[in-house]
Amino acid sequence: MDDSLISSAYSQALEVIASVEPRIAAATRQELTDQRGSLKLIASENYASPAVLLTMGTWFSDKYAEGTVGHRFYAGCQNVDTVESLAAEHARELFGAPYAYVQPHSGIDANLVAFWSILANRVETPYLAKMQAKNVNELTEADWETLRHEFGNQRLLGMSLDAGGHLTHGFRPNISGKMFHQQQYGTDPGTGLLDYDAVAAKAREFKPLVLVAGYSAYPRRVNFAKMREIADEVGAVLMVDMAHFAGLVAGKVFTGEEDPVPFAHITTTTTHKSLRGPRGGMVLAQEEFAADVDRGCPMVLGGPLSHVMAAKAVAFAEARQPSFQTYAQKVADNAKSLAEGFLTRGANLVTGGTDNHIVLLDVSSYGLTGRQAESALLDAGVVTNRNSVPADPNGAWYTSGVRLGTPALTTRGFGHDEFDKVAELIVDVLEHTEAGTTKAGGPSKASYVLGDGVADRVTSQSAEMLDKHPLYPGLVLS
Ligand code: DSN
Known about the structure:
Layout: H1 3-20, H2 22-36, E1 39-40, H3 50-56, E2 67-68, E3 71-72, H4 78-95, E4 99-101, H5 107-122, H6 126-132, H7 141-151, E5 155-159, H8 176-179, E6 181-185, H9 196-206, E7 210-214, H10 224-234, E8 237-241, H11 246-250, E9 266-270, E10 281-285, H12 287-293, H13 296-299, H14 306-319, H15 322-344, E11 348-349, E12 358-362, H16 370-379, E13 382-383, E14 385-387, H17 395-398, E15 401-405, H18 407-411, H19 416-431, E16 433-437, E17 443-450, H20 454-468
Helix pairs in contact: 1-2, 3-14, 4-14, 5-12, 9-10, 15-19, 19-20
Bound molecules: D-serine.
D-serine (DSN) is lined by residues 44, 107, 166, 216.
């Protein structure tokens, strides 16, 4: 693509925005400057292409389109139908899925659609029979009472938050932990790895309706064939949340038993993490669940964001190119380089390494909480997020870990040497940060003291790498 086209598209768009609210145009420019000038290591972030970003900024944003393709509750949806059909078709091809639902606005929305689809599909109530007969009006008050009881009395088994699961996998403060009776499986206390026998034993005892696999902070691959065996043995539906690693599935890094799509009844994802698309969600399903998933809007979703569905189609088209497979492999290779960089410098990694895109650094050996480490790193231009480690003594707010991911900097072109250097810079910051004290002089889990000159030293060394691998290299704003 001609760089001058992108430069003029954004420059002119910013002029238009500035003519109405200059502070938003200024903040948008500043965001680009900040993203260009920092080491983005948040495992769930990436940089979408200009084509994906530009697709979101159109008049599709103005169109309501509740319903499904060809069956809308609003008139005039012919172009939205084209967009949604294309996005779903690309998604089915990309992931080899029988059915794709591209309307969810986020990962949490996608998971809600999945939960309600599973309940509607699997819970034996008069409601189900009457829904299938398409005559919901036949439901009596007694039917509704049974429905409320049955739907509210189901069990979900998911990975615990501190082992790397996600809050929507049955964590109490999330609706998933309230709408289901929930239990969690963890990881082996010695190795930090998933223990499939332990998951199976828990599933046999708990007998969940839904077994959730997938993670947002587990630095290892999962064998989804084994998870499906466990689900089948106890009669559960296997739901996989691949939000974090969808790019590694699309890019054919995770194949065979590591590819969740053939094994899961329902697979959910976001589209903006390793998949490098617009901010949004998606549900892939086996045919058996398609009709229930299709009811996502208006069941639990508001009207679809047509401009984002259009951008999903563009991103999926990009991900179907061979170059995306090269990218995805580099994401995984770079995570290994980052992990090795830490291990050779004496750092402590949960599970002792990685074989996906995540490195989970346990910062307690530096005498810091995750929150202190995250803040000190940010001072040095290294953007990360604090994260619990298994059995975290500091809980989910302060934590003892920092989660790092390679998708974003790999998009910028960082390779082995740069990620080794990133590990060196992070260790430099952590070794020169001390836990601070509270106002009363006691130990603090939040305040910290970063050594003199460390931030400047790290920032200038980062700048060399960031300059060598610019973000949106041809984009020059006038
Ligand atoms: N916020 C995403 C993450 O950082 O993993 C998932 O919720």
